[in-house]
Amino acid sequence: MVPRIPMILTGLALNSLRDSGYSLAAALGEVIDNSIEANSNNILVRLEEDTKGRGGKRHIHRIIASDDGQGMDPETLHHYLQIGFSTQYMSTTTIGKYGVGAKLAALNYCRQIDVWSRTDDGDPWWHVCFDLDSALEEEKKGEEIGVESPTIQPVSDDIVSFLPKGSGTMVVWSKVDRLEERRWAADANALRVDVEKELSRMFRYFLDGGIHITVNETKLLPHDPLFLMKGTWADKVLAEYYARGEKKGEKKLHFPATRIAKEPIKIADSIATLIVTLYPREVARKRGLGGDELARKLRVPENEGSISFVRLNREIN
Q: In order of start, what are the domains of the chain with their CATH numbers?
């Protein structure tokens, strides 16, 4: 009798799932979701460029995401990289619920994931790792692919400064092999700007609520396409644009839109709320200016024809 065979060749399946279609901002968003669920107040994202280049092209070679949340104990950390594991599996009150996103998102861009975490500032940093190349070699030998138990492992000198001071978690994507210049953007700076723009919109309600997200040295301001929030990216751009023609002491800092609809829509047992706004006159100005320099800075062309779907204060599409 022919013996049973595995339903899934884990290593090869993971290699295939690297083409899951995540944009870089969406992939990083999966990690930030976990940080928010861990009650983080400060979240840091770092994109590091290899100045030597690979194959003649400069590229992002490592990505770091750290937070000052509650951290994970060794048992929870052991399962962090396990696809399908979630402490909120199928929850309707949390952003994530399937235990899949952060792992597959990482593998879309890197071949190795390292995670350090601790639950108290007096604890050591526990570490787990998954290396796709090693996993593929293990599978070739007929060995079962898995995640080793957490160990207390020092953080290398070049990234130790990104660790939070107390409790928290640091995720490091290394062996990044899909972010060479001109693949997703002209260069690393353009890619970083794109990530900033996307994350500031995706997490605008959390940024507005006081959570800090920093990409490299840039502290993100919320980007509200409805132009209702205060202290947004649009307020900053418009305040600078119109300051030239204002008298001292009359500087305007907020440019609110007019809300023309806020309607509840019942879908099965759920309620969705449709919100529609009319751009403030300082944005609209006059016909024909929808694509000029100010409009581009305000990201107006990118939002045209779009609907932002938000669940639990997180833009999901």
A: 10-219 (3.30.565.10), 233-315 (no CATH)
